[in-house]
Fold these 4 entries.
Entry 1:
Amino acid sequence: MYLRDARAIDYIQTRPDWDGKTIVIMGTSMGGQQSLVTAGLRPQVTAVIVNEPSGADSNGDLHGRKAGYPNWPSKDPKVMETALYFDTVNFASRIKAPVLAASGFIDTTAPPWNPTTTTGHLKSRASMSPAPRKCSVSSRTAASSSR
């Protein structure tokens, strides 16, 4: 997965319609995880925007925190050792681009400390923001706005 994402950046750089400077990547949940890792693997990335990224703090269960997705089995020491390689924290110090990260405070798939754990290891500029509450549109509002 990570290699595929990095190769997508390589492909973008070959396109004649690319401006030769700007590569902004963004993602939510696992897409946020992939965005952070890709930025760590490809210094050509100029900005990263992630919303509730998963894949950080893989061994959080061993330290009294909920680890979140991908929910590696914490009782197996070999799995925990391997999980750290895939953890976004492993790539954070390589990210050169500024990062804007949002976290959801009630998200159990990507707990709020996931992006905080990663951004704490960045050498680039980082901004954290709480994710906005989900809003819903009632059918009456939707019907009246379509007139």
Entry 2:
Amino acid sequence: MQSSIAQQYQERIRGLTLKDMDRLVREFFLFSEEQGPFYEKITCGGSYTRIRQQMIEKVHSGSGTYPELLKLPKEEQEMVETYLSDTLLGLYGRWIAQGKKIPVDRMISLATDLLTDGVRKYCR
């Protein structure tokens, strides 16, 4: 089942690069919303860590690295990819834990801002 979910997500983000971060984040949140409560438990629940990690690895293995990262050594590519996926999953998990009180479009915008610019925007 997790392989099927990962494959469906891969198909949605195929061809997107870091320059498409707004679309990557949007697709992640919209895809996740379409999957329902079971997916939320897999994605956010502590007892599903192994299943979640298998899904992440499936997505990463099927999509390769982002072309923008190819100039970096492999270890640095992996660090950037880990930062992006862990941050996005962390934000999604917090949103779920808070009961989705922030509207999904605002959450997508907030996550995109944080992933592309960090906290600089909020420090002004």
Entry 3:
Amino acid sequence: MENQNMLTEEVLTGAEAKMPDLSGADPKTLCETIVMLLDAHKGQHIKVLEVADQTVLADYFIFCTGTSNTQVKGLAGEVEYKMGLAGVDYQRMEGYEEGTWIVMDYASVIVHIFIRDQREFYNLEKLWSEGKDIDISGLLK
């Protein structure tokens, strides 16, 4: 993936920064934006799988690890807030109260934010290993 969004550090990390309008954006652009938001807020071990050929659920799965329940909730809250500013709302979110594994469904992009032990236990990357591993190195700081 390449960084076509050109989101600035200020947009990614600033509390009141204006996000570009992403309503109607293609799945790849949504995925890239979410990856950059997670990275800007210290999400760890971010991984993207393209799963469009394996399921009708989504085009992309994003996996990310937080260091604590508080950070997991913070990462999900930041994605929700910034994507909302960009005109993109999730369809469903699960797991926020517990904060050990939060799933955010953006239709074409599903975001999984885990604490480390939950990510290791469920090992969704192995379950979806037939998906195409997407190179996101150009999106990360």
Entry 4:
Amino acid sequence: MSSLLRCIKEIIRDYLANETLSDLLYGSCTEEGLLLDDQMTSIPWELVILPRELQRQEGTISFSVSREDQTAQGEPMLEAEPELEQLTVREAPVVLQHGLQPGDRVAVCRSQGGRRYTVVQRL
């Protein structure tokens, strides 16, 4: 019985080693989702995994600059007309990274069965 079990385990191990568990595909980003080159319908963004470097990243910035502040080269940081003594910005929204945009071409890894899609690179 144990040799039969061992034989079955070897067959399964060999099958999985030879089986392609994922596919590398190419596609385009749309507003609705990801349009793969080999499909006619979009995959909704909810079913697509995006690495952090391809996601939109936003934040806020706060700073204050006075007329006495200088750059590393010794130039005044604040030169404005009319004369300003100080400029303060509090929690201004900024986009740190734009992420994927409609029309961007990407490489996508599709897991076996086509249930999971991971964008691996912007082309």
